[in-house]
Design brief:
The protein is mainly beta and about 850 residues long. The chain has four helices and 74 strands. Strands 1, 17, 19, 20, 22 and 23 form a six-stranded mixed sheet that branches. The chain starts with a strand and ends with a strand.
Length: about 850
C-alpha cells in the first residue's frame, strides 16, 4: 500500500542530472496571449538548482539579423533560494500578464506554496525573475548581459508569428541553447526541434510519442492554440507519466496489523550524496533509501522519511502505521432488557467477527425470557492471530403491569378538573391531562383516551380508558343591559332551567330581584345565575348599567342677535346621549345663521330637549373682477364690482356695480352696513406705444432697416405694400430704382398698435460696373481697379484694408487704383471698397491677386 503525505515546503539540491527544458509554448489564439511552460528534469526524487538559467525567444543561434524573430532582451531566473532546490518533475509556467492566455485558469504561485509541483509566474514578477531589455538583439546576437531588473513587459521574450524559437540556456555555457524549439523561416541552421510554417495561433508541445527524449523531433507536435493550449498541466497522458516518473514516492508494504508487525519501507530516490533518515514514530529510527522496522506495541504511529542533500535542502514524507495488540478483544457494553422483550441480535465487538456465548444466547442472539430475571455474564470470543475474549454483563428486569380506575367516565365540559388515581407510581397522559389531572374544559366535548404508563428500570407497561366529555346544561336568561335609577325593586329572574341561584357582584341574592335605590348611578354591575353540581354545572352572566334620567341645558355667551362674523359657540350641559338639530353629537356646535337651534339628550330612561333662536346679519362682502387693467390709448375700461350690499360707492363719485373709465389711476369701491364696511381697489394703466424706423445703406441698392424700440411682441414690415419681414430688424436688396415706401407696424403684449413710414429714393445706376477682383502684377492685364460708368455729378471711391485703415481714395470716375499703398503693392487679400455715386453710397468687396 502506498501512502504519501506532503508535510512541508521543499528545499532541493543540484545534482549531476540538472536540466531545464521546454515542455510547451504558445503564440496564443490572438494578440500576445503567449506563454512558456518549462519542466525541471532529473533523477526520481532529485532536486535541481536553476538559478541564473536563461529563458529567451530566438537569440541568434539559428541565424542573426532582422527577420529571424529576435526580440530585444532576455529573461533569467533570479539568484534566489526559491530556485536553489526545485523538485525534478516540477512545471514552471511563465505568461504575459498584459494579455493573459484564456487557457490559464490557475492562480499565480511563484513558490509552489500549495505543493502541487507547479510554479506560476507572470513575467513581471519581481524578486524571482530578472530581465534585460537590450541584449540580445538582431544586431547583437547571443549576448546575455546585464544590468538586470524586474521585467517590465513580455516584449523581451515575445514570439514572432513568421519565424522564431523558444529556448533555455545553461548559465555555465551561454554559447549554445541547452534546449530550443523553432519554427518558420529562420535564416540559419534549424534547432533540433523545428516546425515549418508560421507560428501565428500555434501551440508547440512535448507529447512523448516515442519515448521521453525531449530533443527528439518525433516526440514533439504543433497544433491550433485554441484546442491544444494546456498551460500549467501535462500535455497528454504520456507527458503526465513522464512527469510522475521524476516525482518522489515513498511506500510501505503494510500499514496495519497485529503486534509484532514488520514493515518494509522503500523510496524511488537513491542518489549518491543524499541522506535518507527515518523516524518510525515509536522512539526508533533508521537510515537508507530502503529499510525495515518491527512494531511491538499497539498504537498509531507516523513513520517520517527526511531526505537531505549536500547543499542543505531537505524534504519529508509521512506514512501512518496502525498496530493492534495480539489477543486484545473488547466486548461492547449491553443495556438492561425486560422479560417481555423479543429475542435480539447481540452487537459485534473489537475486533469484529467474534461470537457470543452464555445463558440465553443462541447463534449470537439473546432471549430475555429464556435467560430469566437477573444479571447474566456473556462472553465475546475472537479466534486467530489477534484472537482473545472479553466478558460483559446484561440485566433482565421484570416487566410491570399498568392498571387504574375512574370515579366517573362521563363529565360535563365545565366541571372542575378530576384527580386521577396514581397509586401505582405511573404517569397519566392524553388530551386534557396535566400533572395526573384531567381537565374536561381543556379536553373539549367528545371521547378521550386516557393512558397510564408504569416503568421499572428500562421496562414499562401502558393501559388506556375512555372519558366522555358532554355539553354543559344550557341556560336561557335575558335581562335589559340598562336599569333606570328611578325604579326601586326590579325583577331579574326568569332564567331556565329553574332551580338555580342568583348573584350580584358575586354575592348570592335572597330572591330573583334587586333594590336599585341601593346601587350607584352611572355604574356597572354583574348579575349571575348558577345551576348544577361539581361534575356537571352551568352558569350565565349579565352585565347591567344603572342609568339616571337625562337632562340638557344650552349655554353660550353674548346676544341672540349678531353679525355673521361673530358666530355663537353653543355647548350642551347635562347627562345622556347628545344630539343637536344638525345631527352632530359633539359637545358643542357653532351657530352662524339665523334660525332655531336645539339640543337633546336621551338615554335608556328617556329624553330632554332645549331650544334657542338666533338672528344673524351678513358681513359686508365685496369683490372686483380685476385688480389691474391695461388698455390702449383711446379705449375705455369697464370695472365691475360684486357685493352682498346693494349700494357700491366708487372713489370717482359714481354709485353702482359698474363704472366706465379711460384715465389711468386707482379706482376704489366701498360697501357699508350694520356689521362694518369693505373696500377693494383696481389700477388702470393706459398704454401709448410709439415706433421709429432707422435705416442705413450698406451696399448698392441694399439697406439695413431697424425698428426702435425692438421689444414689442409683433413686427410687420411692408415695402411698397408687400409684407417682407416679421423681425425687429432686417436687410433688404432693392431690385428697381425709384421711390419706395417702407412701413413697420407693431403690436404690444396688450395688443396696442404703433407704426412708422419712411420713403427711399433709388437712382438708376445700372450702368455702373465695379470689378470684384484685379491683378496689379505688371503684366498689362487688369493691373488697376477701375470703376466704369457715366460721369456723375458727385463721385468718390475709398479703399480700406482689413483693419479699417484707408489706403486709397479718388474722386474722378475716370481715375483708378494701382493696388499700391505708400508706393508698395499691397498683399493678396480681400479689401473693402466704399463708393459714393451722386446721392447714394454703397460698399463692395474686392479681391487683390499678385500671382
Amino acid at each position: 500500500m502506498r501512502i504519501i503525505v506532503f508535510i512541508c515546503s521543499v528545499l532541493l539540491s543540484l545534482n549531476s542530472y540538472s536540466q531545464l527544458i521546454i515542455n510547451e509554448f504558445s503564440n496564443g489564439t490572438s494578440g500576445s496571449k503567449e506563454f512558456f511552460e518549462l519542466v525541471v528534469e532529473g533523477s526520481p526524487g532529485s532536486f535541481q538548482d536553476i538559478r541564473n538559467w536563461i529563458v529567451d525567444d530566438h537569440s541568434g543561434f539559428y541565424g542573426c539579423g532582422s527577420g529571424n524573430g529576435i526580440a530585444s532582451g532576455h529573461l533569467k531566473f533570479a539568484n534566489h533560494q526559491n530556485w536553489q532546490c526545485v523538485p525534478a518533475g516540477s512545471i514552471i509556467l511563465l505568461y504575459n500578464p498584459a494579455d493573459v492566455n484564456t487557457s490559464i485558469s490557475i492562480a499565480n504561485d511563484p513558490t509552489d506554496s500549495n505543493n502541487d509541483g507547479v510554479y506560476v509566474l507572470p513575467i513581471t514578477t519581481g524578486t524571482y525573475l530578472e530581465g534585460n531589455s537590450s541584449t540580445p538583439s538582431s544586431s547583437s546576437c547571443n549576448s546575455f548581459t546585464g544590468p538586470y531588473s524586474t521585467p517590465g513587459s513580455w516584449s523581451i521574450i515575445a514570439l514572432g508569428n513568421g519565424a522564431d524559437a523558444a529556448q533555455v540556456i545553461d548559465p555555465s555555457n551561454t554559447s549554445t541553447a541547452h534546449h530550443a524549439v523553432g519554427y518558420g523561416g529562420i535564416n540559419g541552421p534549424n534547432p533540433a526541434i523545428y516546425f515549418n510554417g508560421s507560428g501565428s495561433g500555434t501551440n508547440f508541445s512535448f507529447v512523448n510519442t516515442t519515448n521521453d527524449q525531449w530533443s527528439l523531433q518525433a516526440n514533439w507536435t504543433s497544433g491550433n492554440a485554441s484546442s491544444n493550449d494546456s498551460p500549467g498541466s501535462p500535455n497528454n497522458t504520456a507527458n503526465a507519466n513522464w512527469l510522475a516518473s521524476m516525482a518522489l514516492t515513498v511506500d510501505a508494504d503494510t500499514t496495519q496489523g497485529c503486534a509484532p508487525l514488520n514493515v518494509n519501507f522503500t523510496t524511488n530516490s537513491n542518489i549518491p550524496g543524499y541522506t535518507y533518515s527515518w523516524d518510525f514514530g515509536d522512539n526508533n529510527s533508521g537510515n537508507g533509501s530502503t529499510t525495515s522496522h518491527t512494531y511491538t506495541t499497539t498504537g498509531s504511529y507516523n513513520a517520517v522519511l527526511t531526505i537531505g542533500t549536500p547543499a542543505g535542502c531537505s524534504i519529508q514524507r509521512t506514512i501512518p502505521i496502525s498496530i493492534t495488540g495480539g489477543g486484545s478483544v473488547t466486548a461492547p457494553s449491553l443495556n438492561s432488557v425486560c422479560t417481555n422483550q423479543q429475542p435480539f441480535a447481540l452487537p459485534g465487538g473489537t475486533p469484529a467477527g467474534g461470537s457470543w456465548s452464555g445463558n440465553g444466547v443462541s447463534s449470537n442472539t439473546f432471549d430475555p425470557q429464556s435467560a430469566g430475571v437477573g444479571t447474566h455474564n456473556l462472553t465475546y470470543t475472537v479466534s486467530g492471530a489477534c484472537g482473545g475474549s472479553d466478558q460483559v454483563s446484561i440485566t433482565v428486569q421484570n416487566s410491570p403491569n399498568a392498571q387504574f380506575s375512574l370515579q366517573s367516565t362521563t363529565i360535563c365540559a365545565n366541571a372542575d378538573p378530576v384527580n386521577l388515581n396514581n397509586s401505582g407510581g405511573g404517569t397519566f397522559f392524553g388530551n386534557g391531562v396535566a400533572n395526573n389531572t384531567f381537565n374536561p374544559s381543556a379536553a373539549g366535548i367528545g371521547n378521550h383516551s386516557i393512558g397510564y404508563a408504569v416503568s421499572n428500570g428500562n421496562c414499562s407497561d401502558t393501559t388506556y380508558q375512555t372519558i366522555s366529555v358532554i355539553n354543559n346544561p344550557q341556560i336561557n336568561w335575558t335581562l335589559p343591559d340598562t336599569i333606570c335609577y328611578g325604579q326601586n325593586r326590579t325583577f331579574i329572574g326568569g332564567a331556565t332551567p329553574q332551580g338555580g341561584d342568583y348573584f350580584l357582584n358575586g354575592s348570592q341574592l335572597a330572591d330573583d330581584s334587586i333594590d336599585v335605590s341601593n346601587l350607584n348611578v352611572d355604574s356597572t354591575y354583574t348579575l349571575a345565575y348558577s345551576l348544577g353540581s361539581t361534575n356537571c354545572f352551568a352558569s350565565d352572566t349579565q352585565i347591567v348599567y344603572i342609568e339616571d334620567n337625562p337632562s340638557v341645558n344650552i349655554q353660550f355667551s353674548g346676544d341672540t342677535i349678531r353679525c355673521n362674523s361673530n358666530p355663537a359657540q353653543l355647548t350642551a350641559a347635562g347627562n345622556g346621549r347628545l344630539i343637536w338639530n344638525n345631527g352632530s353629537n359633539s359637545g358643542s356646535i357653532t351657530a352662524s345663521t339665523s334660525g332655531t337651534y336645539w339640543a337633546e339628550r336621551n338615554n335608556y330612561c328617556g329624553s330632554d330637549r332645549e331650544e334657542i333662536s338666533f338672528s344673524f346679519y351678513e358681513d359686508p362682502q365685496l369683490s372686483l373682477d380685476e385688480n389691474l387693467i391695461t388698455i390702449c390709448k383711446g379705449e375705455e375700461a369697464v370695472i365691475n364690482a360684486s357685493s352682498n350690499i346693494n349700494d357700491v360707492n366708487w372713489s370717482n363719485g359714481v354709485t353702482g356695480n359698474q363704472i366706465i373709465v379711460n384715465q389711468p389711476g386707482k379706482y376704489t369701491a366701498t360697501v357699508t352696513n350694520e356689521c362694518g364696511s369693505m373696500s377693494k381697489q383696481t389700477v388702470l394703466q393706459v398704454e401709448s406705444p410709439e415706433v421709429k424706423i432707422k435705416h442705413n445703406s450698406v451696399k448698392l441698392k441694399e439697406y439695413d432697416f431697424e425698428a426702435i424700440p425692438s421689444n414689442y411682441d409683433e413686427y410687420s414690415w411692408f415695402i411698397d405694400d408687400v409684407l417682407v419681414e416679421t423681425y425687429p430688424d432686417f436687410r433688404y436688396l432693392f431690385s428697381d430704382p425709384g421711390e419706395h415706401e417702407i412701413v413697420v407696424e407693431t403690436k404690444t403684449r396688450n395688443s396696442c398698435l404703433a407704426s412708422d413710414t419712411v420713403l427711399i429714393e433709388l437712382q438708376n445706376i445700372d450702368n455702373v460696373f465695379i470689378p470684384n477682383a484685379f491683378t496689379p502684377n505688371g503684366d498689362g492685364i487688369n493691373d488697376r481697379l477701375k470703376i466704369e460708368g457715366e460721369t456723375p455729378q458727385f463721385f468718390e471711391a475709398i479703399v480700406f484694408n482689413r483693419w479699417g485703415e484707408e489706403i486709397a481714395r479718388w474722386t474722378d470716375i475716370q481715375d483708378s487704383w494701382d493696388g499700391k499703398y505708400r508706393g508698395k503693392v499691397c498683399a493678396d487679400g480681400v479689401y473693402v471698397l466704399k463708393v459714393s455715386y451722386n446721392n447714394q453710397s454703397f460698399i463692395e468687396t474686392v479681391q487683390l491677386f499678385t500671382r
